[in-house]
Amino acid sequence: MSEAIDTLRVVSPVPGTAMGLESVPDPTFSAGMVGPGVAIHPEPGQEGGQDRKQEAVSPITGMLVKLHPHAFVVMASDGSRGVLVHLGIDTVQLAGEGFDLMATQGERVEAGVPVIRWSPGAVAAAGKPSVVPVVALEASADALTEEAHGAVVRGDPLFVWE
Amino acid sequence: MADKAAAIVAGLGGAGNIEDVEACITRLRTEVGDPALVSESELKSAGAHGVLTSGSVVQVVVGPEADTLADDIQDLLG
Q1: Do the domain assignments include residue A83?
Q2: Hey, are the CB atoms on A68 and B63 less than 8 Å from each other?
Q3: Does a structural domain hold residue A58?
Q4: Phi/psi at A23 (nearest 5 deg)?
């Protein structure tokens, strides 16, 4: 088995419009404090549609090392690269209300498998941004290539982590 | 990890200055009694990626170990 780290292809966990992290209204993400990545802004009409829920899926295949109602981290099989998906901003304050877990912390997940069911509209109605930052944790800024821009659906290529 | 927690408590002005600590995946959200006692440079030396202060609310961005750190800090404040 080769010791080389394979290129990690990260896919979009939610549908929406992909933009740079600098578009996220929170310096933790926009200033890249926890790593580089891509932000997915909700689809038009999602901001106020309280009842409609969607499934956020795993962006890579790996171990679901952290699972909160509003955010999760999947660690790649190399054991050193983790991808964070954070559903909305400051959503920890919602204390899980409106978020349904569809997986268990500690289990192995395939890319594209549902992890959390949530409503971006309900998050927006609670006064919080519903943008979803997807972050390559602790990666250097130049480690990412092929970042998506524009409309993406779940499972679309989002970025590549060398 | 306990050393890091102790260093962060010191950077926040000591246990007596910390009124509340909670964590969210990437950061510690704390409330301090006296913001003037908070040292951003000390927090960064302790390993913080960044410090965001707004009045008495000090957010310390530490990365994905935030939850574990918050528990260690709670133990130190106990």
Answers
A1: yes
A2: no
A3: no
A4: -85, 0
Interface check A71 vs B, CB under 8 A: yes
B24 contacts on A by Cβ (under 8 Å): 68, 71, 92
Closest Cα in chain A, distance from residue B24 (Å): 6
Q: What is the pLDDT of residues B20-74, one digit of tens each?
A: 999 888 899 999 999 999 999 999 999 999 999 989 999 999 988 898 999 999 9
Q: Which of B25, B50, B67 sits opposite A33 (nearest CB)?
A: B50
**DSSP-based three-state secondary structure for A78:** coil
Nearest to A80 by CA among A67, A57, A59, A62: A62
CATH code reported for the domain at B2-77: 3.30.1360.60
Task: Work out the number of other CB atoms within 10 angstroms of the CB of residue B68.
Answer: 14
Cβ A33 vs Cβ B62: under 8 Å: no
Residue of B22, B59, B61 with shortest CB distance to A34: B61
Nearest CA in chain A to B68: A66
ipTM of the complex: 0.75
List active site positions of A: 86
Tally of structural domains, chain A? 1
Q: How confident is the model over A5-42, as pLDDT tens digits?
A: 689 999 999 999 999 999 999 989 999 989 999 999 98
